[in-house]
Amino acid sequence: MASQQPALSILVREPDGFTVWPGPPYPPGSSPPQKLPKTACSATTFSSDGSRLLVTVASTSATVYDCSSLSVIRSFDLPGLTAAALSPTGSYLQTFEKSSSPQVKNVTVWHVDTATALYQHNQKNLSKATWPMVQFSADESVACRMQTNEMQFFDTKDFTKGIVHKVRFPGIDAMQLASDPGSHVAGFVPEAKGVPASVQIFSCDKDAQNQVVARRSFFRCSTVQFHWNKGSTGLLIVSQADVDKTNQSYYGETKLHYLTTDRAFEGIVPLKKEGPVHDVRWSSSGSEFAVVYGFMPAKATIFNKKCNPLHELGEGPYNTIRWNPKGQFIVIAGFGNLPGDMAFWDYAEKKLVGKTKAEWSVISEWSPDGRHFMTATTAPRLQIDNGIKIFDHNGSLQFKKMFENKLYQADWKPEAPERFDDIADLTTSLSNIKIEDTKKQGQGSKSAQTSSKAPVTIGAKPAGAYRPPQSKHTAALQDKLFGGLAPTGPEMSKTALRNKKRREKQKEKKAGEGSSADDS
Description:
Blueprint lengths: L8 E6 L2 E6 L20 E4 L5 E6 L3 E6 L4 E7 L3 E6 L5 E6 L9 E5 L4 E6 L12 E3 L6 E5 L2 E5 L8 E6 L5 E4 L6 E6 L7 E7 L8 E7 L4 E6 L5 E8 L11 E8 L5 E3 L8 E6 L5 E6 L4 E7 L4 E8 L3 E4 L5 E5 L7 E6 L4 E7 L5 E4 L5 E6 L9 E6 L4 E6 L6 E4 L10 H20 L3 H8 L17 H11 L12 H26 L1
Antiparallel strand pairs: 1-2, 1-35, 3-4, 4-5, 5-6, 7-8, 8-9, 9-10, 11-12, 12-13, 13-14, 15-16, 16-17, 17-18, 19-20, 20-21, 21-22, 23-24, 24-25, 25-26, 27-28, 28-29, 29-30, 31-32, 32-33, 33-34
């Protein structure tokens, strides 16, 4: 007997607090019920495995909930709280508090179940790029942090030991620990004084930590984004330069680089179109990655882990790509300052299954079971028209809710994708239901059956309006820019209709005169 699948949940945060909804489907015309009464907060976030929920109130407290029962596990009173983060399985809580002096240790790693402070240190500044300070692998067996000119590692079984070993890395400005498994760590040194920027990968094995596993150097780079695959064998690096020296982009210059831990590939990803790298995502298996890149209309391509192109997803007004947790479906979309076009692809069948729009979307993500795709318009990015939309895996709209007040957050509760059935199983069961319904409808009256078998006359396709040769390229470009949803031309004016009728009458008159002459 198959194990029971976990229930989906959605966290929704508004100005007056957060609540949790059960996942779709929802009855038509009704609002989702609340699994938890609305609770005041400043921020909320799930642990990576979805087992625990962190709720913070600025400069006041941090509370950890058990997601299965939505009951409080532990609450921490922290008067100077500025930021907080949970470890991947929720065992540890990391907090940052305002510091009055360098002697005050304002960063603390807590054990959630016992509320014990395991490790503390002083950190002067807090930035989005360096928070959380301590990074954990998915199973929490590896933990490390970045300090001046080095990467420092902890013993996660005993944080009281402090730093147990270090990797010397002069000039390090950013780092990213591979998550699943935590076998490698990557560090970045920005370009300075004519020396190119570089990314180096090190092993997390204590005996081999000072040996560089892979290296890549490049010019025109000030910041990077790291994307490790599942298996920690491949690393995608999006390098960003603040200024585009070719003057082709106002937003600077971006490049996509790829490194493998076995050194099978160390170089730039061969993209077929010039322009920025808008988005990149690994598949759930870690064996393919998808990229949206190039000047508008942007191009979307899927590569294998050897960096060879596998499939083209076409061009359009896109800057976002989302691969569902099962790896079967892909959404490419254009959000932000783009019109919100979305294209749903069945990657297994290599075909487009649906197109739709979700204007003004700020966030977007697949559900853990891979069957639903949620978009949301949230504040403070947009102050009006805040709302949530949920689509089926083929792009059909299932649910829509607008919020009179602001919507700050909408997130799926994480779950392991392997705990859910494949979408093919659901599709097969639905197909069986439809076939049975069709058979029942086919057992109607004979007149209905006779009418259904009657031949259908298909009229000839009417000739379209004249288009000059130069308009063909324009029409093709509009189709790419608007994702096949470009508005059609205006209807004929009254004068044009009158002229058309007059020409038709003249043709009929001439035809009548010709037939009378033949008769005589």
